[in-house]
């Protein structure tokens, strides 16, 4: 990683439909609870569905991405193991049919237009809606409700989701992440160093406090 982060900020590349991103954020929360100073999250979107995404942004689920039943069963086992390790209850193990692009567009809009605390509340609500409640975070009405609860005007979210320019910006972020060498998520980056996966709090501590 080439970018240097401030002492108060950690960059996190993630996709809402990635269960390990949800678990990784729980690990980060646990690490944060041991710190005196807040470590802000500089969220950067990543598209796990990029190999199946059509030019218009829709997903072609018929595309073979090499992830068979054995792959998903191993992933589920990994999720269950980390759930137990981090003390996290989850409604889902894997979310294969949900498109996170609308959620990422909405989250990107809030991140750019609102203060950090408002974005963070919305971001956490999106994660919880999917992994705690099993809801479809690709649904516009759900995103409007979550945003409203976080203090964002729901009409702004509807406008953001219909904004082709904003959609293009988010997809450019996906490309930029790949150009930076991000091949999997979550990836935590700090001061030129990185850790990939839902790593434990002590590894995040080493990443941040040993650099």
How would you explain this protein's 3D organization?
InterPro entries: DSBA-like_thioredoxin_dom (IPR001853), Thioredoxin-like_sf (IPR036249). GO terms for molecular function: oxidoreductase activity. This is DSBA oxidoreductase. The protein has a 4-stranded mixed β-sheet with strand order 2-1-3-4. The radius of gyration is 17 Å and the shape is globular. It contains 8 helices and 4 strands. With 211 residues, it is an alpha+beta fold. Helix 1 runs parallel beside helix 2 (69-86), helix 1 (19-32) packs across helix 8 and helix 3 (101-113) runs antiparallel to helix 4. It has a single domain (9-56, 70-209), classed as Glutaredoxin. The longest helix has 18 residues, at 69-86. 49% of the residues lie in helices and 9% in strands. The chain has helices at 19-32, 69-86, 101-113, 116-131, 140-149, 154-161, 164-179, 201-209; strands spanning 9-14, 40-45, 187-190, 193-196.
> Tell me about the biggest sheet?
4 strands, mixed
Number of domains: 1
Order of helices and strands: EHEHHHHHHEEH
Annotated CATH architecture:
3-Layer(aba) Sandwich
GO molecular function, one term: oxidoreductase activity
Protein name: DSBA oxidoreductase
Organism: Haloarcula mannanilytica
InterPro entries: DSBA-like_thioredoxin_dom, Thioredoxin-like_sf
Which SSEs are present, and which pair or pack?
Blueprint: E1 9-14, H1 19-32, E2 40-45, H2 69-86, H3 101-113, H4 116-131, H5 140-149, H6 154-161, H7 164-179, E3 187-190, E4 193-196, H8 201-209
Parallel strand pairs: 1-2
Antiparallel strand pairs: 1-3, 3-4
